[in-house]
Design a protein that fits this description.
This protein is an alpha+beta fold and 126 residues long. The chain is built from three helices and six strands; from the N terminus they run H-H-E-E-H-E-E-E-E. Strands 2-1-6-5-4-3 form a six-stranded mixed beta sheet. The mean pLDDT is 93.
C-alpha cells in the first residue's frame, strides 16, 4: 500500500461530512467501484447487502427520501491498517413526521485508499 493508498481518519471525516451535506457524489468518490454496503437491518445475519457503486448509491439516496433531514452527529472515527470505524448518532425526521434518533456505527474495510466495504450496526430501539 502506498502513502496515497493509506486510509486515514480524514477520509472518514470527509465521508461523514458528505453524508451530512447529502452529497452522494462525494460519498461515492470515497468508495471503490465494487463497493459493498451491508445495512443495519434485514433478514440475513449481515443485514441487507448492496453490491456495486450503482446499487449502493441507490440505497444511500433512499435514506434521504425516507429521512430528508438526516444527520450523523457526534461522530468519532478511527483507522487501523485496512479497517476503520465511525461511531455516530443518526438524527432526523421521517416523512411521516416521526423523529428518529439512533446510535450506531459503521465498520469499514479499505482498499486502495477508498472504502470497499461498509457494514452498519444500529441500536435497536423499541
Amino acid at each position: 500500500m502506498s502513502d496515497t493508498d493509506t486510509p486515514t481518519v480524514a477520509l472518514l471525516e470527509t465521508y461523514g461530512e458528505a453524508w451530512n451535506d447529502h452529497d452522494v457524489d462525494r460519498i461515492m468518490a470515497a468508495m471503490t467501484d465494487d463497493c459493498v454496503f451491508e445495512t443495519g437491518g434485514g433478514k440475513a445475519p449481515w443485514g441487507t447487502r448492496h453490491e456495486g457503486a450503482a446499487e449502493v448509491r441507490a440505497r444511500f439516496e433512499e435514506v434521504w427520501r425516507d429521512i430528508p433531514d438526516v444527520r450523523f452527529d457526534d461522530a468519532r472515527h478511527f483507522v487501523s491498517g485496512d479497517r476503520g470505524c465511525s461511531e455516530w448518532t443518526l438524527r432526523g425526521t421521517r416523512t411521516d413526521g416521526k423523529a428518529v434518533e439512533i446510535a450506531g456505527c459503521d465498520l469499514f474495510t479499505f482498499r486502495g485508499g477508498k472504502i470497499w466495504i461498509k457494514s452498519s450496526y444500529l441500536k435497536n430501539r423499541r
